[in-house]
Amino acid sequence: xxxxxxxxxLARPQHxxxxxxxxxxxxxGHAWGDPRLLAAALAAxxxxxxxxxxxxxxxxxxxAARDRDHPDKRARPVARGAVAPxxxxxxxAALAAAGLALAAWAGASVALIVxxxxxxxxxxxxxxxxxxxxxxxxxxxxxxxxxxxGTSGIGIEPSxxxxxxxxxxxxxxxxxxxxxxxxLLAGDAVQHRVVLQAYTTGFLDRAITVCAAGVVASxxxxxxxxxxxxxxxxxxxxxxxxxVLLGMFRxxxxxxxxxxxxxxxxxxxxxxxxxxxxxGWIATVLWLIA
Length: 290
Hints:
Elements: H1 2-11, H2 24-28, H3 35-62, H4 64-67, H5 77-80, H6 85-106, H7 108-126, H8 134-149, H9 160-185, H10 189-192, H11 201-224, H12 226-232, H13 241-257, H14 264-270, H15 272-289
Helix pairs in contact: 3-6, 3-7, 6-7, 7-8, 8-9, 9-11, 11-13, 13-15, 14-15
């Protein structure tokens, strides 16, 4: 049982909440009434859950030695010796194969997108994670692949506003993650992540501010667009904007005053105000357009 728990921990199922990006197309594309599209979207989401877990397991093997000196990552299964590297590699391969198989069932386009996700993560691990700014754009690209899998990948036309807002949001989260790492690791930052030597808190704060403003502006314009009102049959989506503002400001508060911002999944699970803002936004959107 202990070994099984360690394997589950290695897969990090609590981070699967990030794959909710795949379902954005179903919500904003009004596809929940189409059983075929809904089944494909759910399969694509599950495929990304398996694919992301495969990536986590693989990276934990590569980074085990460095993780042992990290204040938080030292508790990861491979770093603390609960799972042997060969077992972690085997689990990663099994999860990757299962993810690709499920993606292929959802559609050929989804399988190609999941394969691109693996290629992107491989490029990130092998070198792109050491290139300042580009490292954050690669992280954001991984989330954009999730959005594309749940839209064009299953036959739903993606909204340009949705793509723009999603990209800015993931850039915001990526720069916030770097800011949190810089604050947490202080003088040991470079030892744990080489790219941090190229960042300063001043630069990251400016980048975070630009991205946060972009998220709010693009989402506000989306809710006020005539095309949006026509698509959803309501001009009241602007009433969801307060939830977005609450979520953004709460995330910034946790980043600057509570030592948070390192991982959006952890923040969502730990902070009741952030969780309430997210749930309130989802509920209000469903109430207005469903």
